[in-house]
Amino acid sequence: MAGRDVVEAHWATDTSKLPHDAALLEAVELFRAMPQVRLIAIIDAAGHPRGALLERDLRSLLFGPFGHALLSNRGLSMDVASRMRDCPVIEIGAPAVEALVAWRSAESAEGLILTRSGRFVGTVDQPNLLRIAAERAGRLHLVERQRALRIEDAAQRFRAEKRDLIRGLGEVSQAVEAASRRVAQRAVAIRARTDDVASAAAGSIINLQRIAVSAEIFAGALDSVDKRMDAATIATQRAVMRTRASAEQIRALDEAAEAIVTVSALIDTIAQQTRMLALNAAIECARAGDAGLGFTAVAGEVKALATQTRTAAAGIADHVARIRIATAAVSDDHEGIARAVEAIEQLSASVMAAVREQGSAGRAIGEHIGEAGAATMRIEAGVADVLGSAREAGEDAQVMQTLVERLAIIAASMKSGVSAFLAELED
């Protein structure tokens, strides 16, 4: 059977056939020419089988003394259709068991008719069908025996592996049970820790809200300080302007004192020259004698007046010197004040910039604190989800524990069933 349990063309033992309108004499002559043939196929004009002629139905005509003469009589019209019987028809490639069942089911069947695509190919007689059935039974028996041997080998291997399998199943069950216990314990611990984290998150939200309020107050205070610093800056700028104006006035006063000193020196020079002139006049009056006595008195008065003028000029110079010293001291102090005011202005500017930066930082802190509060609220929601997951994990662990117990029961039942199966195999 070329490795497949199907009907094949080499099953055919004969290819004899007659048309359905052939004379019965032709069938008798074919049977006489081929004594080993037990049936002849009857086909139609398209080559499709219509039935079969059996050798046993024509045996009286074949071996009777008058059979051949009877069939040769032209007055008696006898064709193959009068003796044709139904015969099972099987397509080549059909399952072999189907062909054998059709043959055994047919009443008084002497064989089968083989076709390909519905057209006649050949016939298989009963002896060959018996041989094919026997060969097929032998092959099936061999297959069953091989299968039995494979089952026996598998049973031996299974028998060898059953203890390890059952032992491994028990160990796995124990390991799963231990793991489920650990999962349950961890779920409880996670739930406790998650509760603590949730409490801490709630407390941090309250603290962040308080900090946010304080940051807003701090930002408002910095805004107020910023406004006051603006006013202080304006006042400082005015003080700087007045200080610069006072410095200009002090420089003008110093210049005026310098001018007074110059005038005082000129007066001293004039008084000195006047004194010299008075001295010369006195000398000339003394030379003139009595005629110059009047001029001598006048020259003396002029000399005395020049001396007084020099003394007054010297006093003026002393006063101007003291004024210049005081002016210089005031100028130095004024310059110190101006530098101090400028330093205050710079300090005020830097303080103002720092205050503005602090205000921006305070507002940024408030914004960040608000974001942190929102993030903390999200964390709290996430912690709640984690808490729910932990609770579900605990429930799943309990379910796993139940499944483990069922697995242990199933393992015990499997152990008993396998032992009973192996006992039956050994029997």
Describe the structure in your own words:
The protein has 427 residues and is mainly alpha-helical. 77% of the residues lie in helices and 7% in strands. The chain has 6 helices and 6 strands, in the order βαββααβαββαα. The protein has a 3-stranded mixed beta sheet with strand order 1-2-3, covered by helices on one side. A hairpin with a 2-residue loop joins strand 5 (111-116) and strand 6 (119-125). The relative contact order is 0.08.
What's this model, at a glance?
The chain is mainly alpha-helical. The protein has helices spanning 24-33, 59-63, 67-72, 96-105, 126-288, 293-426; strands at residues 17-19, 39-43, 49-54, 89-91, 111-116, 119-125.
Structural class: mainly alpha
Helix content: over 70%
Listing every helix as H and every strand as E from the N terminus to the C terminus, the arrangement reads EHEEHHEHEEHH
Number of helices: 6
Distance between the termini: 36 Å
Shape: rod-shaped
| Main sheet summary | 3 strands, mixed
Q: Mean pLDDT score, rounded? A: 75
Radius of gyration: 72 Å
Number of strands: 6
* Poorly predicted sequence stretches spanning 5 or more consecutive residues: none
SS strand fraction: 5-15%
Order of adjacent strands in the largest pleated sheet = 1-2-3
